[in-house]
Design goal:
This protein has 281 residues and is mostly helical. The protein is built from nine helices and three strands; from the N terminus they run H-H-H-H-H-H-H-E-E-H-E-H. The chain has two domains: 2-191, Up-down Bundle (Alpha-lytic protease prodomain-like); 198-280, 2-Layer Sandwich (Alpha-Beta Plaits), CATH 3.30.70. Helix 2 packs antiparallel against helix 5.
């Protein structure tokens, strides 16, 4: 947040003094990064709270909710940039100053470094919100890169090419909107308990089936809640075994799944007698 605030202020000043709306648009995007990072920080802190009486499954939904808010903020920033870009294209103005190219080159490098670092953290934590925040840095690098191209064209083209950087800002707004959609989709899917991915579900099935006493699986549901996963399993066992043995198998399955996947917070196991499944099928 500190780096983004510094970059945003620097780009705003350089864009104003250098007559470059592309650079000012970039500053707007960086200011939105500061706000979005604050939202992510708050969301992560809430998501990390332990379960309580009102939230027995924990507060994990705060994490994709934060990612959703960040994506919408990215949409908003893109709309603002697009509107102002069109206004600048229609309004005669001076050619951007050459020094703005140096500012943009530095921004692209810094932002790409930030993106690579934050996305690595997001992937290691399996955090939708952190990954979303990382793409704010990549979007900023893209807008800065396009602004660099636009200003270069304006400077090389001379009179009549003053709006090249404004067109670059308009193009950048479209790219930002597209990225915002790509980031919003997984956050909304997680909020609506969509299947988190085939890989973890397939592995949970494999682990559960390897537990002693398990004949087959009737159902296997996995959902993501913030940093954690919750699993519902219907395990088929011998119909003639005593209740206590079925209870043991259920615990064995739960321990096996959680042992193989520490990110699984809880496993709910329902025992099904073999003959019931055969009759229903």
């Amino acid at each position: 947040m500190a780096i983004n605030a510094t970059l945003a202020a620097g780009k705003a000043v350089a864009g104003t003094l250098g007559h470059s709306y592309a650079l000012i648009a970039d500053a707007i995007e960086s200011f939105s990064d500061v706000l979005s990072s604050m939202v992510v920080l708050i969301g992560l802190r809430v998501a990390m709270r332990p379960p309580d009486e009102n939230h027995p499954y924990g507060h994990g939904k705060a994490e994709p909710l934060a990612a959703t808010m960040v994506s919408l903020a990215l949409f908003g920033a893109a709309v603002i940039i697009a509107v102002e870009s069109i206004h600048e294209i229609r309004t005669p103005h001076s050619t951007p100053a050459p020094f703005t190219l140096g500012v943009l080159a530095a921004v692209v490098i810094i932002k790409e470094i930030l993106f690579r670092y934050v996305v690595k953290v997001g992937q290691s934590l399996q955090s939708t919100a952190v990954r979303t925040d990382a793409w704010h840095h990549r979007s900023d690098a893209i807008t800065s890169g396009l602004a660099f191209v636009g200003i270069s064209i304006a400077l090389l083209g001379g009179k009549g090419w003053e709006t090249a950087d404004d067109w670059a800002a308009l193009l950048a707004s479209g790219i930002i909107m597209f990225n915002a959609y790509l980031l919003l989709r997984p956050a909304v899917l997680e909020l609506t308990d969509s299947v988190p991915g085939a890989a973890i579900g397939d592995d949970v099935r494999k682990v559960a089936l390897s537990a002693p006493g398990v004949l087959s699986l009737d159902k296997c549901f996995v959902r993501k809640m913030g940093f954690d996963y919750y699993v519902d399993l219907h395990v088929v066992v011998d119909r003639d075994m005593p209740v206590w043995r079925g209870h043991q198998i259920a615990h064995a399955v739960k321990d096996a799944v959680r042992g193989a996947h520490p990110e699984v917070a809880d496993v709910l196991v329902h025992i099904e007698p073999a003959h019931q499944i055969d009759t229903e099928s």
